[in-house]
């Protein structure tokens, strides 16, 4: 990770009374600074969270307590952000116009799972406590302070936490996403105990956390293609180690618009790049081979193979009805201290919940873009009864990384599917030897590239984002500005 030069003066950002955006943008979650543009976009900023006096007169109010947090963030960020290996660095500042008894000042870092606005819907799974001031230990003043006082602090943002059974788990990324009513939130809290009645006041500052989860090294032939700016990747027939073959799917495809309807049985085998772990913001390389299934191919009217070849060509075209989709499966438990049991998948945009208080969300987050192979290793004439496509699934920069902790699982599956097309009717083929179930493969999503070069690059422009289905958006609990201000 590259950080800005220490000589660059930090920028200050004093937060106003306007609430912070609930959902972080992709730039706030981007932590890979391998490019010059990414490095130049980072700066060290100071974020101030203030607690005002309770005077009834607006003119006499002033920020008497301030939590200042330092963070290396993209310039578009509107809140502090920490990544694996970074320290929570800052200071607590008191500006007291009159002498006041300060009994203690404590800084806390907390991680919570929030599933509802009810008290039982907010569960603490991580807490770090750092006392920074105690009036008992200050003999000269006895705890009575006046004027400006500042106490700096710095401690590591933990990368793991322990459950009730003292098992260690990786710290999950901040989760704030539309349609998922399970939020992993982190906050830095200052607790101030002051006055004769030991009044307790606090400042809450929501922060982002992004773990460094690196994708594994690329295999040689794929790495060489990226390094040499090749216009194609070597296919699975020539690079068997570099591709993971998904179980074949068998389809019965019939034409419905021709004067002489025909039917063909097709074997579809999809491949994804191996190893099956990819950095968000890049792509999942794909390959598809469609082939006629021997004696099971027939033309009711003519007995000719011409119509079967036409069906094959339609399946292996850029607008193929055969697709590879990336599905995100989020499963969480209401209780962060216990392992979320297995749940059943549900349709996209829907949720399922049972008496064990587990919930599952399934959502499509990517689809393959296809093109005809241009590799110079392809035969000069197509193999009879077989055709292929190259493709890639673009991964959004803000995609949640694969996560497995007791109260939250985020997993991804690449799944083969098909869609109806004018003039074609497609059905899964079931025989005594073959299941009608379409193939799928589990993949992992990382947050950072492997330290070795090169970085995977796409061969196609990123598709325009699909319009959100607002009917599936849920209201999620979020700390309002009044809570941040401690009032």
Layout of helices and strands, plus pairs?
Blueprint: E1 11-14, H1 26-29, H2 36-40, E2 42-52, E3 63-74, E4 81-83, E5 87-114, E6 122-134, E7 144-156, E8 160-162, E9 168-170, E10 183-194, E11 199-210, H3 220-227, E12 243-245, E13 249-255, E14 263-273, E15 277-279, E16 283-292, H4 306-315, E17 322-333, E18 351-353, E19 358-371, E20 386-394, E21 403-405, E22 408-418, E23 424-428, E24 440-446, H5 481-484
Parallel strand pairs: 1-2, 4-11, 15-24
Antiparallel strand pairs: 2-3, 3-5, 5-6, 5-7, 5-10, 8-9, 10-11, 12-14, 13-14, 13-23, 14-16, 16-20, 17-19, 17-22, 18-19, 19-20, 21-22, 22-24
Question: Any overview of this molecule?
Answer:
With 487 residues, the chain is mainly beta. The chain is built from 5 helices and 24 strands. Strands 12, 13, 14, 15, 16, 17, 18, 19, 20, 21, 22, 23 and 24 form a 13-stranded mixed sheet that branches. It is elongated, with a radius of gyration of 28 Å. The two termini are 38 Å apart. Mean pLDDT is 80; it is low at 1-9, 14-21, 296-304, 339-356 and 470-487.
Properties at a glance:
single chain, 487 residues, mainly beta, 13-stranded mixed β-sheet, nine-stranded mixed β-sheet, disordered N terminus
């Amino acid at each position: 990770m590259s950080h800005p030069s220490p000589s660059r003066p930090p920028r200050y950002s004093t937060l106003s009374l306007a609430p912070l955006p609930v959902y972080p943008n992709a730039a706030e979650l981007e932590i890979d600074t391998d490019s010059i543009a990414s490095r130049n976009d980072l700066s060290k900023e100071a974020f101030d969270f203030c607690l005002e006096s309770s005077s009834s007169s607006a003119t006499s109010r002033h920020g008497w307590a301030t939590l200042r947090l330092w963070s290396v963030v993209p310039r578009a960020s509107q809140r502090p952000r920490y990544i694996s290996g970074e320290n929570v660095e800052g200071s607590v500042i008191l500006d007291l116009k009159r002498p006041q008894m300060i009994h203690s000042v404590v800084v806390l870092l907390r991680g919570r799972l929030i599933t509802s606005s009810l008290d039982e819907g907010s569960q603490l799974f991580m807490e770090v406590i750092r006392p920074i001031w105690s009036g008992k230990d200050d003999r000269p003043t006895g705890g009575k302070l006046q004027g400006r006082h500042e106490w700096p602090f710095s401690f590591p943002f933990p990368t793991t936490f322990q459950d009730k059974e003292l098992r260690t788990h990786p710290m999950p990324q901040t989760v704030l996403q539309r349609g998922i009513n399970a939020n992993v939130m982190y906050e830095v809290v200052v607790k101030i105990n002051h006055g004769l009645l030991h009044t307790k006041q606090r400042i809450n500052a929501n922060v982002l956390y992004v773990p460094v989860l690196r994708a594994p090294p690329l295999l040689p032939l794929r790495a060489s293609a990226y390094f040499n700016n090749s216009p194609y990747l070597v296919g699975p027939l020539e690079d068997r180690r570099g591709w993971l073959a998904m179980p074949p799917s068998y389809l019965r495809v019939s034409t419905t618009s021709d004067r002489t309807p025909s039917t063909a049985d097709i074997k579809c085998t999809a491949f994804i790049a191996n190893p099956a772990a990819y950095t968000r913001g890049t792509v999942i390389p794909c390959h598809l081979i469609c082939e006629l299934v021997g004696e099971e191919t027939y033309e009711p009217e003519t007995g000719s193979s011409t119509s079967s070849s036409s069906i094959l060509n339609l399946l292996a075209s850029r607008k193929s009805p055969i697709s590879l989709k990336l599905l995100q499966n989020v499963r969480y438990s209401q209780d962060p201290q216990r392992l979320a049991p297995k749940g059943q998948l549900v349709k996209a945009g829907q949720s399922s919940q049972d008496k064990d208080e587990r919930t599952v969300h399934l959502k499509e987050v990517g689809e393959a873009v296809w093109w005809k192979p241009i590799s110079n290793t392809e035969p000069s004439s197509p193999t009879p009864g077989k055709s292929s496509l190259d493709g890639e699934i673009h991964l959004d920069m803000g995609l949640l990384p694969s996560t497995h902790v007791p109260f939250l699982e985020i997993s991804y599956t690449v799944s083969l599917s098909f869609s109806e097309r004018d003039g074609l009717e497609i059905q899964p083929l079931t025989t005594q030897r073959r299941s009608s179930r379409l193939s799928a493969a589990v993949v992992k999503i990382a947050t950072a590239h492997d330290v070795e070069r090169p970085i995977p690059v796409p061969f196609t422009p990123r598709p325009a984002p699909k319009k959100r289905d607002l009917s599936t958006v849920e209201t999620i609990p979020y700390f309002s500005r009044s809570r941040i201000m401690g009032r």
